[in-house]
Amino acid sequence: MSDEVVETVEIVLFDIAGTRYGADMTQVRRIGRHDDADSVGAPLGTPLEGRRAIIFASSGHHEVALLIDGVLGVHTVSRGELRRLPLAAGPSPYIIGAWLDRDQAVLLVDLFATNPFRPEASHA
């Protein structure tokens, strides 16, 4: 019998215009309405409906919102199942990896990187 510990991460799955994304739940404050916080814009594409939002904190605890079409659930995933994308392969600086959920690819997002209000974004 093995005593090997498997490290896991909780990922919130969400949809924007038919594309499935995932983000580390430790970055998420809550799921809310689109008018609950300042919007970070549409860094991952424009939602078809955009009535829901993933709310997360920017620097100084100011809350910001990523507009989404819907939440698809929260999954506990082994870190070994996650794949980091090489910088050259990433479609945007916000996409940091991928996870295969059965037969569907989920693009993994760094929510903090989508925030144009963060101090380092003003120097980019």
**Largest sheet, strands/sense/barrel:** 6 strands, mixed
The helix tally amounts to: 0
Which blocks of ≥5 consecutive residues have pLDDT under 50?
A: none
Number of strands: 10
Shape, per Cα inertia axes:
globular
Mean pLDDT: 86
Radius of gyration: 15 Å
What structural class do you assign from the helix and strand content? Answer: mainly beta
Strand order across the biggest sheet?
A: 7-1-2-10-9-8
Give the DSSP E fraction (strand runs of 2 or more residues): over 45%
Description:
The chain is mostly beta strands and 124 residues long. 0% of the residues lie in helices and 47% in strands. The strands form two sheets. The chain has a six-stranded mixed beta sheet with strand order 7-1-2-10-9-8, with no helix packed on it. A four-stranded mixed beta sheet has the order 3-5-6-4, with no helix packed on it. The N and C termini lie far apart (51 Å).
Summarize the structure.
The chain has 124 residues and is mainly beta.
Characteristics of this structure?
single chain; 124 residues; mainly beta; six-stranded mixed sheet; four-stranded mixed sheet; globular
